[in-house]
Write a structure and sequence with these properties.
two-stranded antiparallel ribbon; 2 strands; single chain; mainly alpha
């Protein structure tokens, strides 16, 4: 019962500051979208940079970004 009340309080708090929540969601979403394209641009036509392939580095970045969001939330 305590957990349900805690969840309700948190939801009310976040609904009061809706714009902040929207900005937070957009900012976190942009990192998932933008940074893989940055890595693609860094690699350019090369297949390997410092023994890492383009797929390796993008997969690594996506996993780290997802874990960061999961742990931080």
């Amino acid at each position: 019962m305590k957990y349900i009340q805690l969840i309700k309080q948190n939801m009310q708090y976040y609904l009061v500051y809706r714009f902040r929540v929207i900005i937070w969601i957009l900012a976190d979403s942009m990192s998932f979208i933008v940074f893989p394209f940055i890595w693609i641009a860094v690699y350019g036509d090369r297949a390997i940079v410092s023994s890492y392939t383009r797929v390796d580095i993008i997969t690594y970045y996506m996993m780290i970004a997802f874990l960061s969001l999961t742990i931080r939330s």
